[in-house]
Amino acid sequence: MIYDCAIIGGGPAGLNAALMLGRARRNVAIIDNNKPRNAVTHESHGFITRDGVTPAEFRRIAYEEVLRYPSVEHLQTEAVDVRKNESGFFEVLGTSGLLVQARKLILATGLKEIFPEIDGFYSLYGKGLFNCPYCDAWEMQDQPLVLVSESPAIFHTAKILLNWTKDLVVCTHGRSSLSDEQKTLLQSRGIVVTEQPVAAFVGHNGKLEHVRFADGTELPRTGGFVLPKFVQAAPFGERLDCERLDNGGIKTDGVGRTSIPGLYAAGDTSYFNPSQVVFAAADGSKTAMAVNLDLTEEDYG
């Protein structure tokens, strides 16, 4: 069978694209390895009617809704390779040996986070340490928090966090990420700034208790944010030689079309930032409409 569209990725972008294409009566294959990036967090926020939902429950509801449409199929495998064959169809190879052919292909594979190597981080991530203030700062409002990043983006995030707490320590983890002017501005707002490397996060049962620095000193904190570097979670855009944005995202025309005819990118895969469930779902919807339009133009002119 040759599908109208194959979608690699079962996150909000891929699932919303599948929903819209299913409603358009298109034959769709969702290729999803069931390993969502947000599985580590206890709740997702910022999506109206679903604020506070667990990632697992979000996926359960989403698949229940999407698979009501008989032309949508969920293939539980991990995509390991993609190519465009001589007939112009996209071919996706799964770990199970399954080969999927489709007229159009949506990359909704999302991002992978690369965090600074700090002892104790992963045992606290998603419970006492997070990466997005809009997603999780409400639950830690008015607490003593820490913000750790090696990126200049730390300045912007520090200012935003003042909406949730006035007790904030900013750690550049051994880097000179802030200008003297930025340090002065933050300090004038009561924010403590340190360039010391962070040696470890210390806590129990998912709750942060102390930040330990390289010199052995410890700072009591009850929660915080660590800013990661984002990279593509899958190499398919690069393998298909898509044009890229400076930040690493796949360049599109605003509604999902990439520089490769018939190939689309949706959600975090294309715009990279901000990484929000509601943004990704909306982008998946727009991309699906572009796919359906292009299929229609091919079929009927």
TrEMBL record:
A single MF term (Gene Ontology): oxidoreductase activity
Domain FAD/NAD(P)-binding: 3-284
InterPro entries membership: FAD/NAD-bd_sf, FAD/NAD-binding_dom, Ferredoxin-NADP_redctase_2
Keywords: Flavoprotein, Oxidoreductase
Transmembrane segments: none
Cofactor field: FAD
Keyword Flavoprotein part of the UniProt annotation: yes
Subunit: Homodimer.
Listed name of the protein: Thioredoxin reductase
